[in-house]
Amino acid sequence: MFICRTIKELHGVLKENCYHKSISSKIGFVPTMGALHQGHVSLAKKSSDRGNFTVVSIFVNPTQFNNPDDFRKYPITIEQDIAFLQSSKYCHVLFIPTSDEIYPPHDDHFFLEHYELGSLENILEGLYRPNHFQGVCKVLHKLFVLVAPNEVFMGQKDYQQCLVVGQLLKLVFALKNIQMIVCDTFREDSGLAMSSRNQRLNNEEKEKATVFYKAAQYAQQHINKHNFKELQTNIVQMIINSGFEKIDYVEFCDITSLEILNNSGSRVNVVLVIAGFLNSVRLIDNFMIAVKP
Ligand code: AMP
After folding, report:
1. 170: buried, middle or exposed (CB in 10 Å: 19+, 13-18, 0-12)?
2. Ligand 1 pocket test: which of 33, 38, 40 has the largest number of ligand atoms within 8 Å of its C-beta?
3. Tens digit of pLDDT for each residue in 175-232?
4. How many angstroms separate the CA atoms of 222 and 226, rounded?
5. Would you say residue 138 lies in a domain?
6. 186 CB within 6 A, ligand 1
7. 87 part of a folded domain
């Protein structure tokens, strides 16, 4: 596994390994913020299994944090991450840029002044984390240009982010033919979605956090017996009872637009999206719920 800390090093490695006439490999890209877990590695595995020369990046992107405290507390475990990726064997290049590489001074003209994300900007994560998705678009715009991937691998764990990246690809990379592959959420046996932020939870809190998964099971079992409002009220209660101090949202949404729904209409599936705070750690998850099994 090559480890590149500068754009120059990255381009050197890509030139040698992908752009060479006799090799001409497809590039698969997995952008991350580090504190890697098996969920991240499952994305690199998918990329590698599809025959890609696989680039993983680690960059804790300051522009996507609306809360400075969250940024400050974001776990950084670079040495562990390198060893973990190396042992997985799915990553060919690990790119660990500094902030100056991604956001050099006087480089503002590179980015769009505003990435037009439609309603995605103002609902759910967009509503509770103002400017978060503008920051996500900025960093991915830069990283996609630098890595020039054929395929990018994103986790369904961040469902709204996947829709935002789809929009970014249309807005900025329409002529580049970059395909986004959305990968299943990797979970602990308990049902808890793996997340870098779980590192800030102790074992008891991790057990409490499984309530999102239990809520989804409850929703699936009762989706045809109760309306969305009743389900939502009961799920909020379940989450509070398990020790969460604050809930940002519990909503049933359209799977393509994330429009918040009062009823399923003629839909076959809806997505249940949840965000809440447990001991000051903000956790999110989402679940496909079959309405007409
Ligand atoms: P992050 O480091 O949290 O920015 O995540 C980097 C990528 O990994 C994003 O595409 C996430 O959606 C994805 N990811 C995070 N957690 C999981 C998980 N439990 N299963 C699958 N993908 C994940």
Report:
1. exposed
2. 40
3. 999 999 999 999 999 999 999 999 999 999 999 999 999 999 999 999 999 999 999 9
4. 6
5. yes
6. yes
7. yes
For residues 125 and 201, membership in a common domain is answered with no
Find out whether the beta carbon of 196 lies less than 6 Å from any atom of ligand 1.
yes
Could you tell me if the CB of 155 is within 6 A of ligand 1? yes
Bridging pattern class, strands 93-95 and 151-155:
unpaired
Catalytic: 11?
A: no
CA 31 to chain centre: 9
Q: Report the nearest atom of ligand 1 relative to the CA of 195.
A: 16
In one-letter notation, the amino acid at residue 258 is L
Alpha carbon of 61 to ligand 1 centroid (Å): 14
Per-residue pLDDT tens digits for 227-254: 999 999 999 999 999 999 999 999 999 9
Q: Answer whether 0.90 is exceeded by the pTM.
A: yes
Classify 287 as helix, strand or coil: strand
191 is a domain residue: no
The domain tally of the chain equals: 2
Residue ending a domain, choose from 183, 209, 234: 183
In the prediction, which pLDDT does 22 show? Answer: 64
- Residue 189, in any domain of the structure: no
Amino acid at 283: L
| Model pLDDT for residues 38-69, shown as the tens digit of each residue | 999 999 999 999 999 999 999 999 999 989 99
Query: If you measure from the C-alpha of residue 159 to the centroid of ligand 1, how many angstroms do you get, rounded to a whole number?
Result: 10
